[in-house]
Write a structure and sequence with these properties.
four-stranded mixed β-sheet; two-stranded antiparallel sheet; 7 helices
């Protein structure tokens, strides 16, 4: 698959909105929607973990063109910590329990709306990357932190 595109974010936002799915863009895709100058290969979504939200999410994913197996649908409804799709219309990671973020409710209370996109606050994106502690995350932290500082100043 190619790089994550703005059009994909719009499709996610609009389709999830129609189905009432509670989610936040997280990771680099979330930062990009706030203006972070980088690319990523997939959309990363922090999804509220509840059976009702999971059922709505399964329906929304089907509308987007993802062909879910019964096993995948069950994992989503149960809120498995991490579900990855590489065989749909675009690459998508669903995260129900991101590293470094205590709860969806807490992240929601801090989230940022950018052009109608619900995005994790840059502090949460950074904390999640720090807690994941993968090499690629450690390498991106200084740039994400510099972007966060710029982002804070531009809104003042």
């Amino acid at each position: 698959m190619g790089a994550f595109e703005y059009r994909q974010a719009q499709e996610i936002r609009d389709t999830f909105g129609r189905h009432g799915v509670r989610f936040l863009f997280i990771g680099k895709s979330g930062a990009i929607l706030l203006g972070y100058p980088d690319t990523t290969q997939d959309a990363d979504l922090f999804v509220e973990k509840s059976p009702q939200n999971g059922v709505a999410l399964v329906k929304a994913l089907a509308e987007l063109g993802f062909e879910l197996t019964a096993s995948q649908a069950g994992e989503i409804i149960r809120g498995k910590d991490f579900v990855q799709f590489k065989n749909g219309p675009f690459d998508l990671d669903l995260v129900f329990a991101p590293d470094g973020i205590e709860s969806f409710a807490g992240a929601w209370s801090r989230h940022v709306e950018s052009e109608g996109f619900p995005v994790c606050h840059p502090d949460d994106i950074i904390e999640s990357k720090r807690a994941a502690n993968r090499m690629k995350d450690r390498e991106s932290l200084p740039r994400l932190e510099a972007f966060r500082d710029y982002w804070r100043k531009k809104d003042k």
